[in-house]
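Per reviewer request, we include the raw input and output of the structure prediction for the construct analysed in the revised manuscript.
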Amino acid sequence: LVSPATITTDSMSIKVKSARNFSIFDKVFLVATSENGQSTDIELSVADVNGARGDTLTLSNLTSNTKYTFSVKGVVEDENYSENLLLEVPGFNAKTRKAAPTINTITPSKEYAEKDEDITLNIDFNNPDDAVINKVKIDRTWYDVTHSRKLFGLYTVDSISFNVGNEAGVNEGIITDIKYEDGIEEQTVETTENNKFIYSVIKDVPTFKIENGSKINNDGFKLVYSVTDPDNAVNYSQEYKRYVYLTSESINEAIINEDVTQANKYTWEVDTLEKGTDYTIQIDLKYDILDGNGLTNISNNKYLFKTKSNFVAILNDERRYVTI
């Protein structure tokens, strides 16, 4: 009786047990022949073979995913004679397990994704034994691997559908484990290299809003405004400014220019303007929502207004108010 005890990708333990009398032979060997024709002879302990537990031998340095056929032969050295002995299972064979796949590259199908969007991760595996890859693990979630043929079926692309979630910004994902079929059973192997990928989740566009409490005076204004930026898309390192200039002129001739610091709500009061004059308020803020367009000016950041005039009630012949 010849039977396998333990099989790995590069080794195999084989147990040989028999009640036969081997006394006519000087030596008895277990012969392992690979499917490419290479043979290895391992001497058996006849006493162990005839014992209750049999003789267990370990073959090392084997090739993964390779079938080995076993036979037992007896040798008479003086007569230079050998005989293949009859096995309980003629032609008994066993195959080493397939090597574990590793990762070469991970390529997201999109460089920029919306929140909660499903994207495809194309995974290039190093899979020398063409093991069936069932799943990969990212964080605590297992994802089914899809296999599809490309370029007229000449090669296979492995991919998963991956939800990017709601965390806006540049994120890093890690494939930590792979489930695959090794030819005998499903195995789980940890990844050690080339297992990280970068994906960007587009941020919400910041908004600019005039709040209650804003008013225009004779010599200026009180402006209460807010910037809503839940994903921190505004880059305040750009040294933004807020300006007041005559509407008839450009921002280059600004009467007032001040730095804009980071805050959620602002109150800006100015009391040095001319009455009855048209002015423009401009607040410069730029944001990058990670959609590939880089820095963008925040919208609705210009406001045209006219300071109030003094009104004095003088009743003239036409009974109208006259502005002074």
